[in-house]
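Changelog excerpt

This revision adds worked examples to the README so contributors can see how folded entries look when concatenated. The first example is reproduced verbatim below.
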Amino acid sequence: MLGPRQRRWSALLEGLPDRLTTVHRWAGWRDPDAAAVGHLHHVPTLVACLEGVVRIERPDERLDLAPGELLVISPGVWHRHHRPRGPSVAWMQGFMSGFSDVLCWDAETSWAGALPSQPSLLLVTRLLETASCAAAVELLRQVLREDIVERPGTGGPAAGRMLRTFWSGLHRGVSAGDLVRASGLGRSRAWQVFAETYGLPPHRALLDARRSLAQGLLDAGLAPGEAARKAGFRDAATFARERRRVLGRPRSQRPR
């Protein structure tokens, strides 16, 4: 059962489609500093301000979202979320393997849930192309029609450490061994926790994420070799082999 804080967040989210004023879009690669704190995704991500001010940064820009503003972050955009201050409340929607994850958080706590990947992913893809308020309202209304349930296999702190290592090191060639070391668990248990939380075992998740990220960077205009290296592949030929391997799978076995 939701507590008072979560019920208030739910009311703010339900009112967002009618209060939406601006849709921002971040796309394209910006090289982060070697020591930069942040992460990137191989899938699109949405961040909205429900109350107060929500700050997000990328290497060349800082954006303070006001209530009713939404940011669409394209795959491959390095960024950093700042914890909301005071009464500020943020909402985020992203995608794991097989489900869409949603998150509300404020200065003190957070709540995470899950809903089906589709049609959210299709609507977000359309939003990446148009970045219009009408498309964003359609997406938000669809999200509100879904039953948001608890995320499968939250995995606790160990899962959180692995996911942070996954997203922050994807372009640096992070390995399954790196994820295990970040977890602080034994290999078998770490793989189990990651698979329960993300939906795929670490080695498969990394390959699929790199392939998807490289394709997204290609679509953003990067040359094949540069897109491959920034996605953590050794070179363009390695990415091409992985892409051919995936395209050779039966459609039902391809990553979504």
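The second example, added in the same revision:
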Amino acid sequence: MKQIPKTELSPTNGCIIDTKWTLGPLSYHASAAGKVKAEPSKEIIRLPEIVLYDHAGFGGAYARTNLSFHYVGDFWNDRISCLIVVSGIWRFYRDEYYKGPSWDLGPGYYESFFAEKGPDDVVSSFEAIALT
């Protein structure tokens, strides 16, 4: 079994693959090597996505994901100091399995995102709750 670094957010570190988002019509292709020309969708749909950082000011270890985590893993637990919400609305929880006090954040740069809402380095789980 491949060893996953503790700094990597992965299914072995508590990832939940979210299938609740509706992406609109998709076409089926038996192979990507076909020469069938596909018309691009005119509808713009952005899946939720965030970038997490270990230190305030967007420093230290970082991870980019569009998945919800019921537990962020031993490395990231109570260690997330700032983040970028690329798209979507995300709910961050103090405790694992989406429990305890929570904070909702929409698109933007959060250089020290708990300064106004509570103490730093307290996130144990997070989930995407809406598209933007």
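Reviewer comment on example two: The chain has a mean pLDDT of 78. The longest strand covers residues 49-55.
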